[in-house]
Amino acid sequence: MLAIMRGTILLVGCGKMGGALLEGWFKRGINPVDVMIVEPAGRTAISPCGKHPALSCVPVVRDVPRDFHPDVVVFAVKPQIFDATVPEYARFLSDRPVYLSVVAGKTTAAVRALLGPTAEVVRAMPNTPASVGKGITVCYAAPGIDDLHCQICNVLMSAVGKVSWVKDEALMDAVTAVSGSGPAYVFLLAESMEKAGIEAGLPADIASELARATVAGAGAMLEQLNDSASDLRTNVTSPGGTTAAALNVLMASGGVQDLMTRAIAAATQRSRELAK
Ligand SMILES: NC(=O)c1ccc[n+]([C@@H]2O[C@H](COP(=O)([O-])OP(=O)(O)OC[C@H]3O[C@@H](n4cnc5c(N)ncnc54)[C@H](OP(=O)(O)O)[C@@H]3O)[C@@H](O)[C@H]2O)c1
Q1: For the chain: N or C, fewer Cβ within 10 A?
Q2: Domain residue limits at 214
Q3: Residue among 16, 122, 270 whose CB has most ligand 1 atoms within 8 A, to mutate
Q4: Do β-strands 135-141 and 120-125 pair in parallel, antiparallel, or remain unpaired?
Q5: Taking the CB of residue 186, how many other CB atoms lie within 10 A of it?
């Protein structure tokens, strides 16, 4: 699978998401000598550096050696510093790399405005389960991007989970709201079940264990079985039983579906605002 990815990678920002990507790449066989990291916190802040002495890390882009010619430049810095950080990477334009940005709310047009109109730009929205190899990333390629560059981005992002592509960049706001922010909704579900379990009389440690294992187990069923979420729910709901009693509350007007629709609309709107 990595046959097309023999080149060099410049990773800009190696925090939670950059670090997850790095771990995934190494697990998929990318050679640490082919990776250069720009990270102000330095080597000691990056856990894979300890395991891979050949990995190069510099604090600022001007320290990237002149003979390092990246095939891919991956931006994994916070959106707040993006505009100030990206222009310095126009220095690599003559190497014709693909610039892969995982930065939330930054459009491909915004990246091109900072680098130049000829920059090959792919935008990606991963999510935190990437840190355990179970992420889902949605990618969008700016107009005119070379197919090989899309394939390279696909390989790099599939190192941390599944990958989908959209042809309309406007959809990235809803993607951000559903899968980018989505893990937090599921964690909230586990938290709420735990608190409700305590309210129902369970000791805190048991309530926590039950909530975690139930969310994880149900997630594994969603992953491994082909049935829709709706069918899986129906299959475990006997008429007049305990599950039905709970679902009568959760599915009532103003319940989970209405709340989720409002929550995702709010996140989509916030993503649009951040892009401005
Ligand atoms: N985490 C997620 O689940 C997730 C999901 C989807 C998308 N993303 C996107 O991924 C990006 C990174 O998020 P994160 O959660 O990984 O944040 P993070 O943990 O804060 O990582 C950002 C890293 O960039 C470093 N950095 C700061 N200034 C830099 C510079 N000028 N050059 C290079 N590196 C610099 C930071 O170092 P210091 O800490 O020393 O400042 C930090 O290590 C964000 O744009 C976010 O929208 C994240």
Answers
A1: C
A2: 182-275
A3: 16
A4: antiparallel
A5: 14
Domain boundary among the residues 172, 193, 219 is at 172
Domain match, 92 and 226 both? no
177 in a structural domain: no
- What does the pLDDT profile of the chain (276 residues) look like in tens digits? 455 556 799 999 999 999 999 999 998 888 888 999 999 987 666 766 667 777 899 999 999 999 999 999 999 999 999 999 999 999 999 999 999 999 998 999 999 999 999 999 999 999 999 999 999 999 999 999 999 999 999 999 999 999 999 999 999 999 999 999 999 999 999 999 999 999 999 999 999 999 999 999 999 999 999 999 999 999 999 999 999 999 999 999 999 999 999 999 999 999 998 887
Compute, in angstroms, the gap from residue 46 CA to the centroid of ligand 1.
Answer: 12
Ligand 1, CB cutoff 6 Å, lining residues = 12-18, 38-41, 76-79, 81, 85, 102-104, 125-128, 180
Say if 77 falls within a structural domain.
yes
Residues 37 and 158 in one domain: yes
Are residue 165 and residue 201 in the same domain, yes or no?
Answer: no
From 39, 60, 77, 157, the mutation candidate for ligand 1 (largest count of ligand atoms within 8 A of CB) is: 77
Nearest Cα residue to atom 20 of ligand 1: 15
Total of domains in the chain: 2
127: in domain: yes
**Whose C-alpha lies nearest to ligand 1, atom 45?**
103
Q: Are residues 26 and 102 in the same domain?
A: yes
Q: Which atom of ligand 1 is nearest to the CA of 183?
A: 3
pLDDT at 1 (0 to 100): 40
Residues 186, 209: one domain?
yes
- Strand 161-165 versus strand 56-58 pairing type: unpaired
